[in-house]
Amino acid sequence: MSYATKVVIVTGSSSGIGAAAAIEFAKEGASVVIVGRNETKLKSVNEECEKLGKKPLVLKVDVSNEVESKSVIDKTVEHFGKLDILVNNAGVGYNFDIVNDGFMENFDNVMNLNLRAAVYLTHLAIPHLIQTKGNIINISSVAGTSVSAGPVGLISYCTSKAALNHFSRCVAARLASYGIRVNVISPGPVRTDILENSKSPLSWDIYKEATVLKRVSEPKEVADLILFLAGDKAKGITGSEYIVDNGYLLKN
Q1: Which residues are the active-site residues?
Q2: CA atoms of 163 and 209, how far apart (whole Å)
Q3: CA–CA separation, 108 vs 171, rounded Å?
Q4: Terminal alpha carbon distance of the chain
């Protein structure tokens, strides 16, 4: 799969699945836009991409902020002249129980990043994707399907991912006439920094035991699926949800 002529935005690409996707796209020759909030981690991903391919465009941006989010599309088109692929990967999973005071603030923060940011970036990207007949890949989670995918404090996270799944299907139907494909990937447990960032009481060993294959995926496994869905080999696939969870949903 050569992406030598493609321009790809990957949000949340300072670590985890996003970083792995950016690096794999760079390996395949793509012009990559890496987007994230952690400057130190972005620098590390940038260096890895440069070693493997073209120099990326690095944007330190909070995509939950409308002004900053708009700059991602504007600067990408200004720098590279077009946009072919949008990977909405940025997300967060703060652990906060609905029975506790302050829940709505947590809910709004999670929904703003996990759902609204993807919706807004999609809206802004559409005119450019129409020109290139490009595609969108939204990174969701098995938490959008299973209520057992985390502690009780992940209600906001689970809800945001369920909404992202259905948004993706609706947009796939709406944009098909323009030749734009939209798909979703719902990973199960993936060894990233999400447990640390969300202050989750769980461990990867617990998640491993929750899968039928008794393993936790690495970010590159999801990145490989992203590259497949973004490419011509998947030209007949739109409105689909691909689950890569080591059989997590078979047990939960």
Answers
A1: 157
A2: 27
A3: 22
A4: 34
